[in-house]
């Protein structure tokens, strides 16, 4: 993303003569009482203040100077940044309906088949229909429970891999991502996907190009920028890749369905059944189904694997936390050779470790943007129709008004408290809140908790090459998802807690 911001500055000079056109368009906004914000340069607005920085950290630093509600201009895009729990509640609860729409980007329109997924679909009847399908059919409690068998099957293979790797460094990021993706593939299609590597590469690249900070997205009226910036060709390539993968999956799935008889429905079965029944107000097509699976894989694979890697990273940096979490797991399951999924829900300290990991490392630190549908006021400031609003969830979860020693890793802060990630504690919203809250939250949390419990029960862990825990690189990637920039490598050592 840093390259894209630099390119924004260069292109801005080329199109400076268009400033007066843009200036005329924004004159109407001058009569509004917009939130305060940092000084803006002609044409580019505040783009220069993000160059070389991670947006969630840059916006947090700007908010310290200009306030928790802040108006910024990114090229043609006018946006309000929310950086406090109190104001996040106004956006996500008080004015939830008025601010429930999502922005369209060139990338999401093209790759997600005109935003016909769930996460980025425009607010309205189609979105309500698809959200209902997600809640009642795809991610119901019964459906999530049925995936437990898949998780246990995949975990056995992972445990065997770790035993064979005992005493040798392994890439935690790579192995966990493959493990989680295998679970998502089997839950989605009933089998491991031969396109796994291509899917993971697609998700990684799409997260980067759909961050909203590409120059072409900042100047949407100037269509030629999509071409000269190279964004159009990247997105066309991604779209063709996605189409090829899912066309192949649909064809294979159709052939296999004829041979396998009556079995538990996978997620693709569910969507195809709903499509064929034809009872929907808005009939869905194969293209809509492809768009929905982008949501499923992005939410199911990326967020879970990123959270597991960050949790292991923080425990390695804080050996006392690792020791305490491991002691809880081993004492709880003492003498057991096998842990099943229903066993792990009583691991209160491990749950605190996961919460603290999500507090400091929310997978999407800047929640998916909202767009104003109806004029409203937040903190007495005007929020006009079409204004983009972005909640800095990371800034909320590290707000010193709500958290002591807010940027330190202390799982104990969650002991004897009711604070959780259900979207009602606005100083802790790693999955969002309100109408646009992540529908796959429970799927991801179950995966994270179960896998971490197994890793701590059966293995001891150490850093390679005598690395000092405090020297572990904590840099984050840019883009939509804040993963660990340098992959975590650890040495597992087999442990038999049942002896």
Description:
This protein is an alpha+beta fold and 499 residues long. It has one domain (2-494): Cytochrome P450 (Cytochrome p450). Helix content is 50%, strand content 7%. It has 19 helices and 9 strands. The strands form 3 sheets. A 4-stranded mixed beta sheet has the order 1-2-7-4. A 3-stranded antiparallel beta sheet has the order 3-9-8. Strands 5-6 form a two-stranded antiparallel sheet. Helix 8 runs antiparallel to helix 9 (172-189), helix 9 (172-189) packs antiparallel against helix 15 and helix 15 packs across helix 17. The chain crosses the membrane at residues 6-22.
What string, H for helix and E for strand, traces the elements in order?
Answer: HHHEEHHHHHEHHHHHHHHHEEEEHHEE
Read across the widest sheet, the strand sequence of neighbours is 1-2-7-4
State the CATH superfamily name: Cytochrome P450
Total number of distinct structural domains: 1
Shape annotation? globular
* Residue fraction in strands: 5-15%
Uncertain spans: 24-28
Count of distinct strands:
9
**CATH structural architecture:** Orthogonal Bundle
Largest sheet: 4 strands, mixed
- N-C termini distance: 51 Å
- CATH topology category name: Cytochrome p450
Mean pLDDT: 90
Based on helices, strands and strand pairing, what is the structural class? alpha+beta
Helical content stands at 40-55%
What's the level 1 CATH class?
Mainly Alpha
Instruction: Provide the gyration radius in Å.
Output: 23 Å
How many individual helices?
Answer: 19
């Amino acid at each position: 993303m840093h390259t894209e911001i630099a390119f924004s500055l260069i292109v801005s000079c080329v199109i400076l003569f268009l400033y007066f056109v843009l200036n005329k368009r924004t004159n109407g906004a001058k009569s509004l009482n917009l939130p305060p914000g940092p000084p803006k340069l002609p044409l580019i607005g505040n783009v220069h203040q993000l160059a070389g920085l991670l947006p969630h950290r840059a916006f947090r630093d700007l908010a310290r100077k200009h306030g928790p509600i802040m108006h910024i201009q990114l090229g043609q895009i006018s946006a309000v940044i929310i950086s406090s729990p109190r104001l996040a509640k106004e956006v996500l609860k008080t004015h939830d309906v008025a601010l429930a729409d999502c922005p369209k980007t060139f990338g999401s329109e093209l790759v997600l088949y005109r935003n016909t997924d769930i996460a980025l679909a425009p607010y309205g009847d189609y979105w309500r229909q698809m959200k209902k399908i997600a809640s009642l059919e795809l991610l119901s409690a019964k459906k999530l429970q049925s995936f437990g068998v898949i998780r246990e099957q995949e975990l056995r293979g992972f445990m065997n891999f770790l035993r064979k790797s005992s005493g040798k460094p392994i890439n935690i990021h790579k192995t966990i991502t493959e493990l989680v993706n295998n679970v998502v593939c089997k839950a989605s299609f009933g089998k491991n996907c031969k396109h796994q590597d291509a899917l993971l590469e697609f998700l990684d690249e799409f997260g980067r190009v759909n961050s909203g900070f590409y120059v072409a997205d900042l100047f949407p009226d100037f269509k030629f920028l999509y071409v000269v910036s190279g964004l159009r060709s990247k997105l066309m390539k991604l779209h063709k890749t996605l189409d090829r993968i899912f066309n192949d999956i649909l064809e294979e799935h159709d052939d296999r369905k004829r041979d396998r008889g009556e079995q538990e429905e996978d997620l693709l079965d569910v969507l195809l059944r709903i499509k064929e029944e034809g009872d929907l107000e808005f009939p869905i097509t194969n293209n809509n189904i492809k768009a929905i699976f982008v949501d499923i894989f992005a939410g199911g694979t990326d967020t879970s694997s990123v959270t597991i890697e960050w949790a292991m990273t923080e425990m390695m940096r804080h050996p006392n936390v690792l020791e305490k979490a491991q002691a809880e797991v081993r004492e709880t399951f003492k003498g057991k050779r096998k842990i099943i999924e229903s066993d792990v829900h009583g691991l209160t300290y491990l749950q605190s470790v996961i919460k603290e990991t999500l507090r400091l490392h929310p997978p999407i630190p800047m929640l998916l943007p909202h767009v104003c549908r109806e004029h409203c006021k937040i903190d007495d400031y005007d929020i006009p129709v079409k204004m983009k609003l972005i909640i800095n969830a990371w800034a909320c979860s590290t707000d010193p008004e709500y958290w002591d020693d807010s940027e330190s890793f202390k799982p104990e802060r969650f002991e004897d408290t009711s604070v959780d990630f259900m979207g009602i504690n606005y100083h802790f919203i790693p999955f969002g809140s309100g109408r646009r809250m992540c529908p796959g939250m429970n799927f991801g949390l179950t995966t994270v908790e179960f896998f971490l419990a197994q890793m701590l029960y059966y293995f001891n862990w150490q850093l390679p090459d005598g690395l000092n825990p405090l020297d572990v690189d904590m840099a984050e990637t840019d883009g939509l998802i804040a993963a660990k920039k340098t992959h975590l490598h650890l040495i597992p050592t087999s442990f038999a807690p049942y002896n």
